[in-house]
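Two folds, back to back.
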Amino acid sequence: MQLKIIQPIHVLYFETETTLNDIFQYVRLVARRLYRDAVQHDMEITGPVYWIYEGADGNPDTVFKLTIALPVSPAAPASSSEFEQKLLEPYKCISHELQGDWNGLGNVYGEIFAKIGEGNHAPSGQNREIYINMDFQNPAGNTTEVQVGIF
């Protein structure tokens, strides 16, 4: 686990309000559309897919803002693009990498929040999951960085 300050990141993104109960409708589908749109508009992809949760509290029925973002080099907006671009603000977080099945995400969040509780930090209400490697055939091959925003 480590404390990080993430510099601003320019992204192509999708945003919606959802709950943890309803989030699975976006898995795999939105990322594919983001990649397709970026390639179609000749954008340079500069990183893996980010899932950004604002206001998620672990309760499956809580409505929160979900942003699914693909880092790209800044480009002129394409009028035919399904998505918009923006700059993610600098982000201070506690980060931990999960190797393997996403069923372990709950434990990672628990460890990070315990670490935050030990220190002089408070959660910001924004969490990020960076999907460094997604292996849908062999979940043991997944690499996911979990970032919990702090003040």
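---
second:
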Amino acid sequence: MKNYQKFAAVYDSIMDDSLYDQWTDFSLRHFPKKKKAKLLELACGTGIQSIRFKQTGFDVTGLDLSQDMLDLAAKRAKTVHVDIPFVQGNMLDLSSVGTFDYVTCYSDSICYMEDEVEVGDVFKQVYDHLNEGGIFIFDVHSTYQTDEVFPGYSYHENAEDFAMVWDTYEDEAPHSVVHELTFFIQDEDGRFTRYDEIHEERTYDLLTYDILLEQAGFKNVKVYADFEDKEPRDTSRRWFFVCEK
């Protein structure tokens, strides 16, 4: 467990902290003003965004596939004295979590779904667990990001107690990429342990997302880009969808 905690700490340290501020600000601009609204954060990871939402005044539940990540999230919430239920679960089946006023799924987590059928299934699950008039906000990589920016991307980081190599390649399916991550993390005895991870991500064109959201039942869908309240351009890297039930 100690190694995993270090591993997740490495994840958190390479994540640009300002993104959480931007996700929070974007959400607050697009959620209706409602006191004590119930919010479900999908793919909540180590809980940083869930805590931001809780501190803003929402009644937050966090859901993630990884129990290890959730253990860290619970520990983090306890440290800052906030009470958030963190639920281990799959966003393809939300039957255990009840209903919410708002649902978010940030950090391109939808792009980890295997195909558009799964993406559509997530949208339907979210729709079914939103209260009437509820809002679902998520972001995904643009096709420009997967096709032009990511292939050939390489990032290396060296710190005292860890090193990381991150390479991204084009994958076989349209608009899909593979991230190969290698971490070297220092143990208590000073030795470095190697961890390898492969992350496969896939996105779709705007029309596909629109159709899948409509099929799920969403009636009012707005699309923005790169944390701003502006329409996507050809070179936008991250698309944001604000969907109303």
